[in-house]
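agent> Task received from the user: take the single chain below, predict its 3D structure, and emit structure tokens. No templates, no multimer pairing.
agent> Plan: (1) validate residues, (2) run structure prediction, (3) serialize to tokens, (4) report one or two observations.
agent> Step 1 OK, no nonstandard residues flagged.
tool_call: predict_structure(input=
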Amino acid sequence: MAAGGAALAAALVAGAAVLAALLWRRRREAAAGRVCVAVLGDLGRSPRMQYHALSLARHGRGVALLGYLLGPKLVQYVVKVIVQAIQLLYTMLKMDRPSYILLQNPPGLPSIAVAWVACLFWRSKLIIDWHNYGYTIMSLSHGRNHPLVQIAKWYERLFGRLSDYNLCVTNAMKEDLWVNCNIKAITLYDRPAPYFKETPLELQHQLYMKLAKDYEPFKPRYATESVSSDAEMSAFTEMDEESGHVIKTRGRPALLISSTSWTEDEDFSVLLKALEDYERYINEGVKLPSLVCVITGKGPLKDYYNGLINKLHFKHIQICTPWLEAEDYPLLLGSADLGVCLHKSSSGLDLPMKVVDMFGCCLPVCAIYFECLHELVKHDENGLIFRDSNELAEQLKMLFLGFPTLEGKLHNFRKNLRASKQLRWDESWDQTVLPLLGQNE
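)
tool_result: status=success, residues=441
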């Protein structure tokens, strides 16, 4: 028995020695600018990190994209952190040596510390891309004074200082990182990908017909004077099947769109209350169009809000909450008449990506106020900012009065967005991040 135990111990030691030797050999091999882009979460919900990876690959960099397809569902938080730390460190040490590790924060616990250890081993540079603060997101569920939140705050500020370079999403966050954490960061604003653009009318019709198969609001409510007796119709468009010519239907409803991950930082009761007021305006005789309100996305509070929606009994408003295919989402944004954003930053320092995408489609937006929103939404220029459901209801009434006229604020906002010639992600990334990566090569 003793001999067997000694043999097992010897085998383990020998295996560890071989593994260490292999890692050491790989540690010494040059990586030629390879970058590990890491997200300790669902990659599908991290478009900014996907854009980083695409930009790096476009410039010929080797990219290792590291993340979870689905978040791990361990009950005990401490156990989850330990398991994640082991998984992440193991994966980072077995990959080809990177010159840089580009890490999304949040989530940063335990990924910042693990990435720092991996960088020490590989002699790589650590770049943190600050999207928000993890401890402020935790505080939405636990309160700012909860011990876990305080530990997370201490950890984030301590280990955040160990990075070599830092990116962040707003100038307000850049200032906060410097003043409160002594971290020097570069602002890299979120920008829309090239496929976020206005949707041609023919593609709009194809999309509406596709969605009408599953969602009642996209089906025609009643027959209209069509371009021909054989017209193919949706709620918003009709196509002459002989000529293929597409027009917007007379008396069509306005298309209002919002997207969400159905979490605590977005209160959709604000929108539902505003829609109740909008319905009341129509019943009182105000000349407003019917509305189709589409709220896309999935998340933990979706069932709760669907329950509230099912209790509403509107005559002039239809609401649906689809989960769209990836290629359909930008097409629907590019087809809509108005976007609504209810994102309230947990820190007050990040900006909603959904508004960036809406602006890429030249879609005007009504967005709920928080501290640094002015860095993206210019009130009365590319959209409107509201503070409560009453303000939102008044804005909807003002914007849709006389719809679908080519006059008024809604039309002017869209003209301003078309004229603004916004930077796209690739151009912004080349100007901001590419020089950073070239400093040490």
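agent> Step 4: summary for the user.
Confidence is low (pLDDT under 50) at residues 1-19, 70-75.
agent> Done.
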